[in-house]
Amino acid sequence: MLSMVEYVHQRILTYPSNLIGVDFTMGNGHDTAFLQEHCREVYAFDIQQVAIDNTKKRLKFVKPVHLICDGHEHMSLYLSSFDIGIFNLGYLPLGDHQVTTSLETTIPAIKEAIEKVQYVLFIVVYPGHDEGKKESLFIDEYVQHLDAHQYHVSSYRMLNKNCAPYVIEIEKKK
Ligand code: SAH
Fold this sequence. Notes:
Layout: H1 4-12, E1 20-23, H2 30-38, E2 41-46, H3 49-58, E3 65-69, E4 82-88, H4 103-116, E5 117-125, H5 130-144, E6 151-156, E7 166-172
Parallel strand pairs: 1-2, 1-4, 2-3, 4-5
Antiparallel strand pairs: 5-7, 6-7
Helix pairs in contact: 4-5
The structure holds S-adenosyl-L-homocysteine (SAH).
């Protein structure tokens, strides 16, 4: 089985390479670096300076990448729309586990990203910790009610492991 992040990357490879990508949770920068390879331009958000420092070290290409030290709930200050987006929720591995994404900001950010996305949005959810469980309950409920004429909503998840991380994919219909 592919890991959740590997799965997201495989899916992104099926999209054209001239698009604008957004990493809504920069963390250690793996997704930002991947998007830089596959997209024309990248925006990446994190509220921790350490995430920006770690991400800078991973970038290999000269394509434009905007590393933004601000919450993803403020995305409209930086972009009006985008093509491919990734939320990898939870806390920074090896970092401060107190600094996790939290429902209060995840809700408005996900709602806005769904409005702004032109191709596809991935959300990797981690229900194995308290805040992640709350995020998971909200997100599952919210995406189930998105208009089926406008979006394909699907999921990649293990069914025989309790509280394992999973992916929600929201594809905008063309
Ligand atoms: N759980 C993932 C990694 C998630 S990293 C894994 O195990 O691989 C999540 C990142 O989101 C952290 O670096 C954290 O600082 C960042 N974050 C938390 N709240 C945020 C917000 N409101 N806007 C942008 N980034 C945020």
